[in-house]
Write a structure and sequence with these properties.
The complex is a heterodimer. Chain A is mainly α. Chain A contains 15 helices and no strands. Chain A starts with a helix and ends with a helix. The N terminus of chain A is likely disordered. In chain B, α4 runs antiparallel to α11 and α11 packs antiparallel against α14. The longest helix of chain B has 33 residues. Chain B starts with 19 loop residues before the first helix and ends in a 10-residue tail after the last helix. Classes of the chains: A mainly alpha, B mainly alpha.
Chain lengths: 284, 317
């Protein structure tokens, strides 16, 4: 049936409004993808072409020099590993702690639940810059500057994740866990074996959000790390722009390519589910 | 499948009437159980969000510098926030940035969502992905790429626009163009997120409403004005507030592209917080500035709560 519908649609001449819409979307997509194209293509351009006038989009000659240069200028493997540990660590802790707290707020009955929820929603509105300075002092007092603990621990739980998962848990049907409880299942067992498996789309979406935001964050690693060795790939790239203000564009683009590659590849693999989950898990 | 099935729990006779109390425990016991679930998150948020908040409030009334003993200075820091010409410049710049960024990002997102909701559009899922990709790219990388594209000597975009007779010159050194440029990079990076949210909102509008409007003789504009917009108002409020809060916190791409220049024309409030707190070590002053930013954010969020009053009703459940 769907095949017949498709072929019928295929044969019908498109409406003029659809043609105009297509042209507009193609034009906008071209502008949106241009910086990504310039990153990828410039990364493989020889220096002479990068600084040539008139500039061109595609390299005439392809080279790996920029990639070699950036991996020798920066402790690249170390920075990438730091990014994975930082973003991955924050994601793992936040998903665990947020889902536990969200479960209690959505599914358990206890005194002070409503007040607690209001406090959590209130902290949702605090811009993290507002707490950055005392937070830095606290992390420094703990001796955690330039450590993974300092990067990860302050973000091991967050109000947005708790609120987001709570909304999702509220919408899950309750008859199965009521039955499990009557059968003597513990609250933790209901959480782990019934609620969590049903919350995979929400966990996946929140996990990607958390990972992407932390991987890409610039201010956070700039503040909590002072040694180049402990920075992330995102903060490390800013070291390439020297005090002279002269930017070796080819090297920058090669570094940028390496910085975005893991995220873009991961995103392209799961993009359909990710985008649909944003749409269906209560973010709209 | 049944062969690998785990051993089934032995049958228990159903609890007698009133036995549910036994299954779920008393309120005190349940509260203790709930606290075990909440404890890890509450410890993290209490230690790393609430405590620094309280601490920042105290510091904002002192001349703290991060070293030595701090003196109580009363409202002096707040007076400086509202009188220092550099800070007022940063506030004006942040408002200007918000005014440039928010409508552009929201209209681009809404416009593209309206185009992509059309089921006859070819390659919809490709375009949807393409428009969202910038959201997973960091502001820092976006800033490098756009800086190169608009470089006055070797920038490809400058070259192409020059071919069309548009001369941009050195955009990032131009006092009038630098701010629109850094705001544009934010639009590029963030609009895809708002676009996906709008798209979901549009897909939730029942098509029967459009058909009814069409039967009543409503044209495309009238259908948009009287069906789409009213039903999208919640989504719109949500996106607007998110976009404005993102604008108030502008930092990353400005730090990379202009460093606040030329001559402070792109210096924002968060840039000032970073510089006064971490470069000049005026910790007390930076804390006061942070609290002013917090107040601005709270006011915007309050607007959100007014808009979302209906949606938040389930909080009382």
């Amino acid at each position: 049936m769907s095949l017949a519908a498709t072929s019928r649609r295929g044969r019908r001449a498109p409406k003029p409004s659809t043609v105009l819409a297509t042209i507009a979307v193609v034009a906008v997509s071209a502008v949106v993808l241009l910086p990504i194209a310039i990153i990828v293509l410039t990364a493989f351009k020889p220096v002479a072409e990068v600084n040539a006038f008139p500039p061109s989009l595609f390299p005439h000659e392809w080279t790996l020099d920029n990639l070699r240069q950036v991996t020798s200028d920066l402790p690249f493997l170390r920075l990438t590993a730091n990014s994975f540990v930082f973003a991955g660590g924050v994601t793992a802790f936040a998903l665990t702690f947020d889902s536990l707290a969200a479960y209690a707020l959505a599914r358990m009955d206890f005194t002070g639940r409503r007040a607690l929820l209001i406090v959590i929603i209130a902290t949702l509105m605090i811009p993290f810059q507002a707490t950055l300075i005392p937070l830095y002092q606290l992390v420094a007092d703990l001796g955690w500057v330039n450590s993974y603990a300092g990067l990860i621990a302050p973000r091991a739980a967050d109000a947005f994740g708790i609120f987001f998962l709570r909304q999702f848990f509220l919408a899950l049907p309750r008859d199965v866990d009521a039955a499990a409880r009557i059968d003597g299942a513990s609250e933790f067992r209901v959480f782990r074996s019934i609620v969590l498996p049903n919350a995979v789309p929400a966990l996946l979406t929140l996990g990607l959000f958390t990972f992407v935001n932390n991987w890409n964050d610039l201010l956070w690693p700039l503040v909590f790390t002072t040694e180049a060795e402990m920075g992330t790939i995102t903060s490390g790239l800013t070291l390439l722009t020297g005090p002279s203000g002269i930017v070796p564009h080819g090297v920058m683009m090669a570094g940028s390519l390496l910085a975005i590659l893991p995220l873009v590849i991961a995103f392209l693999f799961i993009q359909r589910r990710f985008i649909e989950n944003i749409a269906t898990t209560g973010l709209k | 499948m049944s062969a690998s099935h785990p051993p089934v729990r032995r049958y228990r006779p159903p609890a007698p009437l009133g036995g549910r109390r036994h299954a779920s425990g008393g309120l005190a016991r349940r509260s203790a159980g709930a606290f075990a679930f909440l404890a890890p998150a509450l410890i993290v948020i209490g230690l790393f969000v609430i405590w620094p908040m309280v601490s920042a409030l105290r510091l904002s009334f002192t001349d703290a510098s991060g070293f030595g003993r701090e003196e109580w200075v009363g409202l002096e820091n707040y007076v400086t926030v509202f009188t220092d010409p550099d800070i007022l410049n940063a506030v004006v710049n942040t408002v200007q940035y918000t005014v440039l960024f928010t409508p552009a990002a929201v209209l681009a997102a809404l416009g593209l969502a309206l185009l992509l909701v059309n089921p006859h559009l070819p390659f919809r899922s490709f375009f949807r992905t393409a428009l969202f990709v910038p959201f997973v790219i960091s502001f820092a990388v976006a800033a490098f790429a756009w800086s190169y594209l608009i470089d006055p000597q070797v920038g490809l975009l400058n070259h192409w626009l020059g071919g069309l007779g548009i001369r941009m010159g050195n955009v990032l050194q131009d006092p009038t163009l630098a701010m629109p440029a850094v705001a544009f990079v934010a639009v590029w990076k963030l609009f895809g997120f708002y676009f996906v949210i709008f798209l979901a909102g549009l897909q939730d509008i029942p098509s029967s409403l459009y058909e009814a409007a069409r039967v009543d003789g409503a044209g495309p504009w009238s259908r948009f004005r009287h069906v789409t917009l009213p039903l999208l108002s919640n989504t719109m409020a949500f996106v607007l507030v998110f976009a404005m809060i993102a604008a108030l916190q502008a930092f990353d791409q400005i730090y990379v592209m202009t460093g606040g220049g030329p001559y402070g024309h792109t210096q924002t409030v968060v840039m000032e917080i970073y510089e006064s707190g971490f470069r000049k070590l005026e910790v007390g002053f930076a804390s006061a500035l942070s609290y002013v930013l917090l107040a601005a954010t709270l006011i915007l969020s309050l607007v959100q709560f007014v808009f979302f009053g209906r949606r938040e009703k389930d909080l009382s459940s």
